[in-house]
Amino acid sequence: MRARPGDTCYLYSGVPPSQVTVAKESLGFSAAHFLTLPGHVCERLHGHNYRVAVSVEGPVDSTTGFVVDFAVLKQIVRTVIAPLDHRVLVPAKNPLLRLSDVDGQTVVDYTRPGWLVLPREHACQVPVTQTTAEVLATWMAWQVWDALRTQGSRGLTRLVLELEESAGQSAKAEINQSDPRD
Length: 182
Fold this sequence. Notes:
- The structure is a single chain.
- The chain has one domain (18-176): Tetrahydropterin Synthase, Chain A.
- It has helices spanning 70-81, 133-150; strands at residues 18-22, 28-33, 46-58, 87-91, 98-102, 105-109, 116-119, 123-126, 158-166, 169-176.
- Helices cover 16% and strands 35% of the residues.
- Helix 1 packs across helix 2 (133-150).
- 25% of the residues are buried.
- The protein has two helices and ten strands.
- Strand 6 and strand 7 (116-119) form a beta hairpin.
- The chain is α+β, with helices and mostly antiparallel strands.
């Protein structure tokens, strides 16, 4: 059977699984953070201009010819990074921290009460135990993976998210279709 103009259901059948990647300057954010590693230089509050790149693999849709529409993938990444931009990233699941909200301020008790006090709108409590590039990349990868699956990209087999905290310094997190969700 020959395809006719407007008949797209067979145009892309037989295309092997592929990989698509988004890695644009606009997929970045600036944030401050600290690590709870006593005596380590990164225990002090400091910041980075982060960049995010995401690659996804899976079958090519026989109707659209996409693994994932680039516009959809970029929008999902932007949705994940938007709450982090120009904020102080606070690891909300860190057992060494006690977090409280007092009079519109986020209070972080670490080595002493009131170790860090921020206006609530300046803090982003990330549900992680530490804000290293490795841990943030893994958390972000799962956020992107879940969002893609929610919007209908269920055939994906692999996602790799790279989080660059400064030029030449990055962490990658990989999720495969068979990976259990923690």
